[in-house]
Amino acid sequence: MRPRRHRPVRRGEAGFSIIEALIAAAILLIIALGLLPVFSRSINDNVTGNDATQATNGSRTELEELLQMPFNNQRMVVAAGQTKTETKDLYTRAKADPSTGAYEIGDATEGWATDATGRGPVLWNRTATVQQYGITDLNDGKLDTPLDGSTQANFVHLKQIQVLIENPKKDLFGNGQGITLTVIKAF
Question: What is the pLDDT of residues 21-40, one digit of tens each?
């Protein structure tokens, strides 16, 4: 038998060197580090969006409750000498557990309340405003002259219900997110 000769291995056929593998790993690491802020931002945006959805849904519920009430319900009566009635609520996140710092989802301290004492951080402020108008105020196409609360009930034909949601956290320019829902209830 003839002894076999091994042909010499060419440099191009030898595979990756350790240096090439390290360079490829470094490039992948740089790309991955560049994407981390995108994922972090998306998580933050999802939490903020969830909070805004809860606040908006709570405000729509408030608006719908006021629409379902009788025209002269106590919550929609404007006091004598006033041109509007306002109620203010706060949406708080659940109170943090002192030992872990984590918020207890579904806790009784989460949701709308008139007082935030003993509750978690305030995420949203909600103001429901009721103003009353006579039908003649529509002559110019605008509701711009609200009636005083001492006006006789038979002259009050329309009530404007406005629910304003504001985020108490302001950015550098003093702006916060806000949503305004407005409806007109006829007698």
Answer: 999 999 999 998 988 888 88
The full DSSP string for the chain is -PPPPPPPPPGGGS---HHHHHHHHHHHHHHHHHHHHHHHHHHHHHHHHHHHHHHHHHHHHHHHHHHHS-TT-GGGPPPTT-S-EEEEEEEEPPPBPTTT--B-TT-TTSEEES--TTS--EEEEEEEEEEEE-GGGGGGSS---PPPTTS-GGG--EEEEEEEEE-S---TTS---EEEEEEEEE-
pLDDT value at residue 141: 83
| pLDDT surpassing 80 at residue 163 | yes
The CA-atom distances, in angstroms, between 74 and each of 39, 50, 88, 145 are: 49, 33, 16, 22
Between CA 153 and CA 71 the distance in angstroms is 10
pTM over 0.85: no
Here the tokens at position 132 are 């009353």
